[in-house]
From TrEMBL:
It comes from the Eukaryota. The keyword Transmembrane helix applies. The chain crosses the membrane at residues 50-70, 95-118. Pfam families: EMC6. It is found in: Endoplasmic reticulum membrane. Its main location: endoplasmic reticulum. Belongs to the EMC6 family. Keywords: Endoplasmic reticulum, Membrane, Transmembrane, Transmembrane helix. This is ER membrane protein complex subunit 6.
Amino acid sequence: MAAERELQIAPLVQESLVHNTRTLNNLHSLTASLLGVAAGILGLESLAGFAFYISFSLLAAVLFYVLRVAPSSLPAGKSLGDTSRYFRRGGGFEFWTGGLMGGLAGFVLTWTLFYGLVRA
């Protein structure tokens, strides 16, 4: 009953959810490419490069959450990491790690390109 009342007071607008998801996907793609450039210039190889990508992608998600998503005051019944107000399907796993697989191809592409340019 409380969730229904919340939706009546502050409804979820489909266009806003789509915009937020698109913005997050763009952030993941850009972050993956920039991390690929950094990993290539640093000369990282194998698991060190992938660990670099995973750790800094999660750091980018945390920074995005802290700077853009985290409300100044949490509504009643919401936890600190709850992103269901801004993203479809409750956010959660999709918000924090959804861009890891989507940005992996861009990361590997720029990683190998810049590694080859620096080491050549």
